[in-house]
């Protein structure tokens, strides 16, 4: 199939959003921004963008970086079983898959170490270190399509954050939102299709979203 599938990582392929929410709550308590639901608001953004936007003090930035490195070092990266099942189904049908994440390469290396065989599921991985403009800009998903050699119009994006959904929609891909992090009603109608998760979701459902 001349089709590509581009996946956000946290909250879509791996069950890590609750852990990151707690991490950023701790950071926000130590360095208050005064922004409601800060951990949710920044989801999908790269760390440099978050730091430059909300924590301009360079010393504070270094302290936050250290907190995140320490947190990620001890973090468990657990894939959603149904997400892996669906990605394996795509691979079996010849659909090229890629991860498009705001995460760093260091974090990805930790994930690969904990989950042998994970990297082989994807033809390409685009990390936050590889893009100039992070989500909601369309650049990450355009790079993902380019990395697997599939026209973005023939790609499907799977996202759970508002910024990620906006990125997918702006890229020209058929975008499918997952209500794994935000409430269904909050993201419904912001993408071509909204689902609760990958349970019971198959290639035929993905393809049908293009004409929805």
Automatic annotation (TrEMBL):
Name the UniProt key words of this record, in alphabetical order: Hydrolase
Keyword Nuclease on this protein?
A: no
Q: Which domain of life is it from?
A: Bacteria
Give one GO term, molecular function aspect. sugar-phosphatase activity
Record's Pfam families?
HAD_2
Q: Which PANTHER family match?
A: FRUCTOSE-1-PHOSPHATE PHOSPHATASE, GLYCEROL-1-PHOSPHATE PHOSPHOHYDROLASE 1-RELATED
- The entry's protein name is HAD family hydrolase
Organism field = Candidatus Limisoma faecipullorum
């Amino acid at each position: 199939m001349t089709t590509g599938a581009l996946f956000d990582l946290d909250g879509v392929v791996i069950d890590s959003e609750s852990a990151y929410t707690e991490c950023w709550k701790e950071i926000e308590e130590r360095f208050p921004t005064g922004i409601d639901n800060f951990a949710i608001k920044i989801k999908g953004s790269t760390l440099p963008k978050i730091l430059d936007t909300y924590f301009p003090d360079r010393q504070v930035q270094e302290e936050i970086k250290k907190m995140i490195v320490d947190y990620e070092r001890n973090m468990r990266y657990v894939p959603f079983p149904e997400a892996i099942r669906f990605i394996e189904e795509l691979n079996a049908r010849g659909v090229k898959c890629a991860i498009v994440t705001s995460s760093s390469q260091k974090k990805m290396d930790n994930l690969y170490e904990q989950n042998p065989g994970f990297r082989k599921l994807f033809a390409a991985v685009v990390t936050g270190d590889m893009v100039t403009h992070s989500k909601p800009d369309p650049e990450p998903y355009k790079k993902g399509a380019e990395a697997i050699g599939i026209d973005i119009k023939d790609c499907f994006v799977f996202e759970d954050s508002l910024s990620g959904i906006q990125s997918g929609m702006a890229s020209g891909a058929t975008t499918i939102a997952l209500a794994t992090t935000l409430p269904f009603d909050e993201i419904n109608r912001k993408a071509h299709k909204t689902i609760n998760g990958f349970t019971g979701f198959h290639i035929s459902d993905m393809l049908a979203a293009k004409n929805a």
